Amino acid sequence: MKSKHYIVITVVLVLPLAAIAFHLWSGIGFEALRSRKPPFQIRYDMYYQSKVGAQQGSTYFADRSAMRGHVPGTVPRDGDLYTYTTWEMAEAELRNPVAGMSDVSGRGKNRYDSFCATCHSPSGQDTTEVVRRGMPLPPNLAGPNAKAYSDARLFHVISAGQNIMPGYADKLTPEDRWWIINYVRELQKAPLRLVEIHSLDTTSTPTTTRGELQ
Ligand code: HEC
Fold first, then answer.
1. d(CA 32, CA 7)
2. How far is the C-alpha of 61 from the C-alpha of 210, rounded, in Å?
3. pLDDT recorded at residue 211
4. 68-86, pLDDT tens digit by residue?
5. Which residue owns the Cα nearest ligand 1 atom 3?
6. Which of 20, 78, 92, 189 reaches 20 to 30 Å from 159, CA-CA?
7. Which atom of ligand 1 lies at the shortest distance from residue 135's CA?
8. How far is Cα 202 from Cα 207, in angstroms, rounded to an integer?
9. CATH architecture of 87-210
10. Where are the domain boundaries for CATH 1.10.760.10 in the chain?
């Protein structure tokens, strides 16, 4: 055979077979499709990185929390300091810059679902896992109270917090907070529902029932 034939045979047969054999052996190809075992790690440090994830504990900081708050006196690049200490002050000065605008980008819903629904539920009216696990039931966002709040007052609650609800000024840009308010206004168009809470402790009777008012 001429040497040209060896090259053709190598390219057409040997190389593809070698590639298939390598896939089978390494587990990165077909093995992953039929095995429930974790795949063979070629680069171990890509799977197991020396970092902490969100909500994980860490022994690095004294408070053993991996997630850090913002450094006092600093603001996010796209944020600003929230200086109002009462909702009355906020109401006297703030106006919703996106009032009445439809949320075409879905920003309000996206931010609400990420930052508020955990406690207030996607509808603003229902119970959530954190409530079932012991957090007091937050007020109904479609209830008469929140409905009567001005946009500026809602902005104040979101920015500064209210009682056990933390403030979100360091996590949400002012613009996002206004879009959330528009989205809450959308949620408030739904009929008011009553919500019954069953605690995780199944030996006790349902603990809280929310009536028309909270
Ligand atoms: C960690 C749970 C939690 C998260 C997250 C949360 N809230 Fe709250 N929220 C509460 C609780 C609890 C209250 C009741 C506080 C009180 O007793 O005054 C509350 C109160 C409120 C109120 C006042 C309602 C009233 O009738 O006085 C509004 C408005 C509100 N939240 C909106 C939001 C929005 C918008 C977000 C997202 C940016 C959000 N909350 C995120 C727990 C939460």
1. 32
2. 40
3. 44
4. 887 887 777 777 788 999 9
5. 119
6. 189
7. 12
8. 11
9. Orthogonal Bundle (1.10)
10. 87-210
